[in-house]
Structure formats: C-alpha cells, structure tokens
Design a protein that fits this description.
2 domains, 47 strands, 5 helices, Maltoporin, Chain A, mainly beta, iron, 22-stranded antiparallel barrel, about 5% helix, five-stranded mixed beta sheet, globular, Immunoglobulin-like
Amino acid sequence: MKNLLSAVFALLLPVMASAQFTISGKITDQQTGEILPGASVALTGTHTSVAADVSGIYKINGLQAGNYTIKVSYIGYQVATKSIVLNSDQTFDFKLGKSNLLTEEVTVTATRASANSPTAYTNLNKGDIEANNSGRGFEYLLDQTPSAVVSSNAGAGVGYTSVRIRGSDATRINVTLNGIPLNDAEDQGVYFVDLPDLASSVENIQVQRGVGTSTNGAGAFGASINIQTTTRRDTGYVELNNSVGSYGTIKNTVALGTGLLDGHFSVDGRFSDINSDGYIDRAFSHLKSFFLTGAYYGKNSVLRLNVFSGYERTYQAWNGVPQDSVLAGNRRYNQLGSENVNGTAPFYGNQTDNYTQNYYQLLYDQKLSDKLSFSGALHFTKGYGYYEEYAINDSLKNYGLKPVTVGGTTISATDLTRQLWLSNNFYGATYNFTYRPQKNASFILGGAYNEYDGDHYNNIQWTAQSAGITPGYQYSENTAQKNDFNVFARAEYHLDKFLFYGDLQYRHIYYSFLGFDENLNNVQQQVDLNFVNPKAGITYQMTDRSNVYASFSVGNHEPDRDDYTQSTPESRPKPETLYDWEFGYRTHSSIFSGGINGFYMHYNNQLILTGALNDVGAAIRSNVKDSYREGIEADGKLIITQQLSWGLNASVSSNKVYNFQQYLTDYDNGETVLYKQYNKTDIAYSPSFVGGSTISYHPTSHAEIAFISKYVGRQYLDNTSTVSRSLDAYFVNDIRLNYNFSIKGVKNIGIGLLINNIFSEKYQSDGATYPDIEGGKVVNYNYFFTQAPINFLASLNLKF
C-alpha cells in the first residue's frame, strides 16, 4: 500500500507543482438583478462543480492553465455556458434569463426541506453521487452523511446492503422516489438490492434527519430519504461506466440520451449488470436493472414517464457469521444452505433469494399561474419472487401433513427444500399544489392515496424421502391489503429576518391481514389507524451567511406485518409516537460551510424486541412506554488551500430506554421467564459516537485524491447494554482516486480507483443476538456481519 501511494504521488508531483488559477464571479437574475444563491457552476468535461453562496458568489480554485467551458444552471432559469482560456485568476459574472420551459424540481419540492427550513438535512448533488458510484449498494452514497451507519450482508458492499440513521433502521426511514413511497407497505423496509445501480439514474438526494417535513408513505422515525431520478439533459450523450474489483465484483452500465429534441422532447435509458462473489462464503449476487424515461417539456408543463425494473438473485447471507466462527478466524463462514448439521454433505447451492420489481411512474408538472403550480404522479409497482431454502429433518406436521407409511416405514419428518413466495401490487397517486402569493410566503397542499395487494404463498419443491408430496405442493397461502391515505399542508413565511414554518399532516391506514384470533385460529383481521402529525419551527437569519433555527415535530408509526400477524387482538401492539425537538446553526462562506444540530427525540410506545414470546410462541416486539434519543450532530467542509479541502461530520448521542424488561427462554423447562429489569439502558444498534472524514486533494481540476475515514462506536445487539452481546467500535479508512481527461471523439474519460479498508480492519458492522438460559446460566448466540479486509474497485467511465 505504501508503494502504491508513493507511486501515485510521484506520478502527480509534476502536475502538483504547476501553476494554479481561480475562477470566480456572481450569479444574478438578468432582468431584476436579484442574486441567485445555490446556482450550480460546473466545468464541463470534469467533475468540478460548486454552488453559489447566499450572496450569489461562486469560486473554483486549483485550476491549471487551459481551455474550459463554464456551465451555470439554476431552477427556473436558462442554462448559461461560456468558453474561456485560463492563464490567470479571472472573474466571470453570469446573468441568467428566465427559462421558457418548466423545470422538474417542483416534482420533489413538496416533500423536501428548503434552504432555510428549520430541519436537519443534507443534500447530495449529481457530482457527489458520481464520485461515489463505483458499484456498491445505494446506501454507501450516504455513508459520509451525519449519523449514518452502513452495512453489507455479503461483506463486500454488493447485494443486500442497509443503513441506519440515528440508530433507526430502514423500517423507520421514509424513502420516496420522485415523491412516491418506496418503503414496503407491510414490513416497511427498503430493499435497494431490488433496484441495482439506481444511483446511475439519480439526479439528487436529500436526507432529512428526525421527523422532517411531511412526506408520503411510512412515517419517518429516524430520517427520510428523498430521491429524484434523471431530469432533463439538453445535449445527447452515450456513457459506458464499468467497474471491476475484489471478490469477483464486476459492474457494467450503459447509459444514453437524446438530449432535448425539437425543443420539447427527451428520452434517456440505462442498463446495468452487476455480479459479485461476495466476501462471505457463497454470498454471490447477480443483479440486473434498466431505467427508461421519456419527457415532454412545454412552456408551462412537463410530462414524464419512467419505466424501470430490477432483478436480484443473491445467495442468502442474512443470518450473519456465528461468533464462534469469527473468534476461530473463520470470518467468511456461511452456515446457510448446509444440507447436514455435521457439515459432511455439500452445501445447498440454491439457498437463494430471487426477486423482480417493475416500476411505472407518470409524473406531471403544471404551472397554473405565476403564483400557483401543480405536481402530480400516478404509479404502479409489480413485485414477485421467492427465497428458497433447505430444511433438515423437518416435521411433516409443520406443513399441515400427517405421517405416512411407505414400505412399512413411517415417515414423520424429512429433509426438504421450500420456496416462500410473494407477489404484490402497489399503486396510487400523489399530488401537491404550491402557491407563492409573494416573495416572502409559500404554501403547499399535498398528499397521496396508495393501495397494496400482497399474496403470500409457500411451496415444497423437493423431499429427501417420499412422503406423498408432489413437487410444487403449496402448503400455505394468505393475502393482505393495505390502503394508505394522507394529506398535508405546509407554509413558510418570511418576516424581516425570521422564517416561520408550519406543517400539518393527517394520515389514515386500513390494513387487512391473516392473524391469530383469541382462540389461536388463523382468521382474516383488519385495523384502522388515524394519525395527526403537526410540525412547527422558526429560523432567524443572523447574517446573509448564517442562521439559527428550532423546530418541534410529531410523528406516528404503525406496527409492521409481523407485529400484527404474530399477535392476537388482545395482544396486538400499539402504534408508536415520536416527539422530536431540533435546534441548530448553519453558516456558509468561501472558506467554510457547515452547521451544528441538536436533537431530542422522545418515543412513546416504541416497539422493540424484549425476548418475550407471544400467544403462539413466536418472538415479538413489545411496546416500551418511554425511550429517547438526544445528541448533537455537526458537519462541515473547510477549504484549507485552493486544492485541499476537509469534510467532517460527527454525531454524539445518548440513546436510552426506561424500565426495560428482558425475557429469556429457559431451555431446561421450556418456559420464557422475566430474566431482568433495567431502569435505564441503551437502545440497540445506537452507537454513542459516529464520525466521518473526507480529506480531498485536487492537484488539478481533473484529478482527485481523497482519504475517507469512518468511525462507529460500540453497538449493543439488544437493549441491555451487555458488552458480550455487542459490536466493537471500528475505524475504517478508504482511498479514492479519480482522474478525468478527454481525447478527440470522447468527451470525458474517467479513471477511478477505490481502495476500501486500506488497513484491513477486522470489524463487524451489524449483527444479531439470541441469548437463552441453559443450566441456569445465560448463553449468548451472537451472529455478526463481518466486512471484508482491504479490497478495491477500479472503474473506467467513457462519455461520448
């Protein structure tokens, strides 16, 4: 590694020593002279882009002498470009004219925080996404945002990946794609593995922490992630993006677009194929996806149709590696798919998860007047697939079958393979009206109505012993329906240096499912829930470059599918409620931009695993009356020199639950007992410190060397603060190298190298625990998601 770094620096040394110049200027409205803060300024053919500050000022440092094209864009304005010859520090002001075509940013405006909203948020633009889009799961784009912890089941970043924000997993993070809910309607999780390489079709992302603004779909209890896909590109293009790396990882992406045709039409498409063997034994991933979009741009309207699909086939690695294997040095062991408890038979090769999702979105934006605009969408998602698994000596009674006698031998159990199927439809509509009667006021009325139909059925595919079971025998089936309606109103009003913010949402849920009644019979049941979620806040503009804010929000969250289906009406859990206080400070200058945010999140009836069993003997989540998260988040970017910058983020938090009762199963008598009561203890998977760092050096505008670090504190696997059931803190470092150049006939050639975990830290990013009592003592059964030692991804990107 030292030799590699030395070689890289040696190659770049002549370039580092060459003269460096600066381009700067101001962006304003052509007619009114009004400044345009946040305007995007980019150098075409490079990865260099900046945003104008609150005074409309931009500055690009560290440029070599040469020819450049500056591209300036701002929502609602025409794109301006200027070709220059740079041989000294120069100033270029841009006056933008209003666009005669409506832009698409209004599609996601209703569910996003504005620049000065009293909300903790992070925006990722196209450049941020491209710099980190090397083939790993979508969640890795968020790794350097505050309070985020990312993990990979297969250990190499491909396949099933996940993120927790402020200790909350995907079931408590609201995710929308163009304002349309992406969370699963029943278990409320988000599975980006079903949309491989989505990042290659994403224009921008906003991550809001806490309750955030009103949005569509599942309630945000830790954060919300708002994603906007491909928008207009005015010129035609063809892009070939390829990556290859450790553990057989290969990513191939082809993207192309027509640009704006006849001043009104555009068509863009992408196809991706990703394969990886995984770090964990046999944890391979075969992933495919496509994205096709076409749009019509009018003077006052935009109509866009998105059709996209994802397919995944992954070998199961979702149980993690047993702790005994990790301690013995076998960090890659995968026990799933073993045909024999003694390990003498070969592993079952088709212990896989197989799923396809097809998405259809029709998006429409209409400018009704200078003050009023409308944005709406119709959507339909079809998902279908199964996971297959090998069961050892499984009892026939588990499948509703009686023992059979064959040749004088009674068969009551057998090895078998089974497929657990899900086929579902999700469809509905979203809408919002935005009204701006004057410059200092805006009002939004929005909402959605969505329906979900899910068919769950399970089949036996094969048996080791003949038990009269034909292949494909269906032993269970049930259906579910969920209707989700919400409406919200939001207002922002500027008075002198103050911004007043108010937001009120009403949400109604109807859910019909198969569950246990009071006699423990499976019967169709239903629940109706009504939630009211108010939000209010204030921002004070201290200077034109800094402000302070405070807000209070209420969020409500329904139990998930298992909470309902594994309980009876008498033991059914209550919905959760969150009271979220946020307060912070933001500043922006040519040298430093960043902020600090404090939060206090108090939960009422939070659902957590306690070890208790329900009426039918299954582990359940139970409501705990009081729990909270409180902490401070800070993030910022410091421009040290014209070429050197340092981005930092850190979160310090205390995450506690009161009066937690731990239940354990005593295997000596088969009973579940209250083992211990804790007055105050840590919430599981909630590290008290999470920090990130990106030191980026641009020896030229075409090259980058970045040193990326991530520290995650100890994470407890249950709610008892027991060190023997926890993940050790870890500190991981990566190096990212990028170089861009062009030749005749190729607009840009990008060469990249991502070296992950350069010091081969042995760490576990996630896990689970299943303790019990044996012989009067507590025995821990811990499982860890071990992550790969030093590994790499090299990329070659061509743009025509």
